[in-house]
Amino acid sequence: MPMYFGVGALAAVVLARREATPAARATTAAAALLAWPLWAPIALSREPPARGPSTRGPEARILRALEEALEAVRGTPLATLLPQRSVEAMRASVARASQRVGELEAAVALPSHDPERARRRLEGLEAEGASSRTLATARVHLDNIERLARLLSRERRALDELADLCDALRSQLVLARYAGSNLHGIGDTVDEVAARVDGLDGVFHLEETEAPP
Amino acid sequence: MSADLSHTLTALLRSPASIAASITEGRDLRSIARASLLALLVGTLVFGGVVGSHRGSLQMLYAALKLPWVSMLTLALSVPVLHGARAAFERPEPFAQSAALMLAASARTALVLLALAPALALALQVLRGYHAAVVLSALSYGLAGLAGVGLLRRGLGPAEGRLALLGFVLSAHLLTSAQVAWGLRPWLVRPSADVVLVRPPEGTFAEELARAGFSAAGIYDSTRSKAREAERRAHGEPR
Amino acid sequence: MESFEPCPHPTPAPDDGFSSRMVTRRDIHPARALLRILTGFAFACAFGAAAGAGHPAPERLVDAMGVAAPPLAFGLFFTPSLWVLLTLFDRGVGAFEIARAAARGVSTTGMVLAGLVPLTVFFELSAGGPDGQRFAAALELCAVTFAGLLGLRAFACDVLEAAPAGRAGASTTALVLGTCGLGVLLGAHLVPGAILALHGGFR
User: Lower CB count within 10 Å: N or C terminus of chain B?
Assistant: First the structure.
């Protein structure tokens, strides 16, 4: 028991010093003193950067552009063109698409999904004169890997194009705010952005319909 | 901070899936852990007091002080088990997430214990028998445990082999919790026994379970000693 | 009802921490594979030492290594033998692929046992009397068995996955499972004796 609280007191001192406010310091010290085996690893862990929008890549560009566009129209008649609700829905779709890209990247990076390796295996089987059934299995595997890679590249491209469009929308809105501009043209861009965002969720379906049977 | 605390406590009870998702993503671990620790301390403290109320007086205080330690020590011993087993099932997660998940699951259990405490307290006052108190307390704990298992199951994600992983972790947790509680007994205190903070160390809970099983079947210690003696004689062993 | 898959599909590791580096499937450098084996062995030794915490004595360190010996022996002696057999029958699984599978098997066993170290020490120190010691020993035997079987599963799945399509037939599976069976026999031969010795023969 004395050893437990001895380690707890040490953990309390070390962990409390990392906190910014006195209240947080007090809670951390109490938690560390009483339950250091559980609290210490949690207190020492880092919040994942994925919590908010990432600071790099097309997802970050889109979210930043949407945020700034929203800021540009706030309190002006232009606000009706870009309601907060629509922007929230767009953000959610972009986050989903970005997560899909991350998952696809991880799947494509697996050693068993290496197209070169699958191709070599198929060539080796063909050279050995393997049965047609075996060859067909190897071909299906290779085909699946190539489709995965195509899907990833399509998702990335869609996000990149959307990021460019969002940048354009932002500059158009900022310009409209200060110099006045054609509301009709802005409405078209907003519609285009919304359509592209909707399209993000459809990339998988597109791939399915385009894929050979 | 209080709004955050209240939000997390509500989520622990109402939407364990969102808590499990936050932990899996490594988000808000500190606020979840802070709220869970508080819930765990309060829930087990109150429930321990209620269990001790069967005997009353000082035992209420002793049991109320000891039960949070049972939870805390059990968690400290079972989190590494979860962490290692997750890795073996190809779902490695940072240690902090394993700790937060076990803590949140135990906190949910403790909150349900808190909810069951008034009913149990009343039942213990109405039904004064020792065995009835044991059964009711164990049933309450088991019922509350189910709430925690739900959160733990969600936190393990949809990975293959989740049931085996859950089974392994739960077995380790139950064994540890039983042994820790055994080490810190007495809890209900038989009418004939004295009230003490902790009894001297003696065997394991498994021996007590076996003894209770034999007792329930009408075979008592003296009968078993005679049977062992007869067995030794039959094998020609010295006493 | 969840279906049981003997070999889980490889999933991208969500975490790149220590445990992830120890057990996830990926093409790792042979030096990293050796490191995985040694770390797994060290963890298993730590478990052995924890199992002897109730009867501490310097000579028990050897018995502690007895608990850890089966995974190491499997990784260092049984897997080369499997490689020879698979190559002899032209099953197309490379030596590095088998070494990687063995490393993942040993580290998987080691990770499970490492997680059980605090709990084992607690049981050893809190279980009094010969009956209590027997109970703790039985739990330790269950833990080692479970950890060993998980390690063997990881090994077998990796080797079978590495076998080229069309050649991962019944004979390959039989050879891999046969080697795993020998691993089980080795464990059954060494571990109970080591655990008994770690408990001072329950005296």
Answer: C
pLDDT (0 to 100) of residue A130? 79
User: Would you say residue C19 lies in a domain?
Assistant: no
Contact B140, B110 (CB under 8 A): no
Interface test with B, best of A28, A36, A38 (most B CBs within 10 A): A38
Same domain as B121, residue B10 = yes
**Residue B72: which domain range?**
2-189
Q: B30 vs A42: CB contact, 8 Å cut-off? A: yes
Measuring CA to CA, which residue among B100, B104, B80 is closest to residue B26? B100
Domain that holds residue C87: 28-202
pLDDT per residue as tens digits for the range A93-117: 887 788 788 778 877 777 677 787 7
Of A69, A72, A59, the residue nearest A162 (C-alpha): A59
B21 in contact with C at a CB cutoff of 8 Å?
Answer: no
Nearest CB to C12 within list A107, A125, A141: A107
Give the residue-averaged pLDDT of A6-22: 87
Between B78 and B6, the more confident residue is: B78
Q: Please confirm whether the linkage preceding C12 is cis (ω < 30° from 0).
A: no
Contact yes or no for B76 and A42 at CB 8 A: no
Cis peptide before B186 (omega within 30 of 0): yes
**Is B195 a domain residue?**
no
Residues B19 and B119 grouped into a single domain: yes
Distance CA C18, CA C34 (A): 15
User: Is 80 exceeded by the pLDDT of residue C175?
Assistant: yes
Cβ contact, residue pair A138, C166, below 8 Å: yes
Shortest distance between the Cα of A202 and any Cα of chain B, in A, equals 24
How do the domains of chain A map onto residue ranges? 2-44, 51-210
- pLDDT-derived band at C111 (thresholds 50, 70, 90) equals very high
- The answer to whether C166 contacts A134, with C-beta atoms less than 8 Å apart, is yes
Q: Which of B189, B212, B230 is the last residue of a domain?
A: B189
